[in-house]
Amino acid sequence: MLNKEYKSISEIIKDSAELNVIKQTADEYGVVNRFEEIFPELSKVAKPEKIESGFLTVKVENSVWRSELLYQKENLINKINSFFNKKIVTNIKFK
């Protein structure tokens, strides 16, 4: 039987306030890295560039797509956050 003083690595990571920045950075990297998995239909017209403090920047092929995606912004944010089961993206900038 394990001593109750010991925690698993996953418990330490989950409970450690010092690691919050690392966890947030990893989550944000996941959004950029898995964008095409979340939105395969957009892979030819939109590419994520970066995400900082919940603000995702996406490069779009042209102004027509930028307008369409701007119209769909809330749905995109919700789909990303649902995919990861947590609030990672708070806003999206299309350029």
Tell me briefly what this model is.
48% of the residues lie in helices and 18% in strands. By secondary structure, the chain is of the alpha+beta class.
Description:
The protein is built from five helices and three strands. The protein has 95 residues and is of the alpha+beta class. The protein has one domain (17-94): DnaA, N-terminal domain (GMP Synthetase, Chain A, domain 3). The protein has a three-stranded mixed β-sheet with strand order 1-2-3. A hairpin with a 2-residue loop joins strand 1 (46-52) and strand 2.
What's the β-strand tally? Answer: 3
Query: What's the order of the H and E elements?
Result: HHHEEHHE
Low-confidence stretches: none
Instruction: Please indicate the count of domains.
Output: 1
Query: Which class in CATH terms?
Result: Alpha Beta
The main sheet comes to: 3 strands, mixed
CATH topology: GMP Synthetase, Chain A, domain 3
Give the name of the CATH architecture. Answer: 2-Layer Sandwich
Mean pLDDT rating: 88
Key attributes of the depicted protein:
95 residues, alpha+beta, GMP Synthetase, Chain A, domain 3, 48% helix
Topology:
Blueprint: H1 9-15, H2 20-33, H3 35-38, E1 46-52, E2 55-60, H4 63-71, H5 73-84, E3 91-94
Parallel strand pairs: 2-3
Antiparallel strand pairs: 1-2
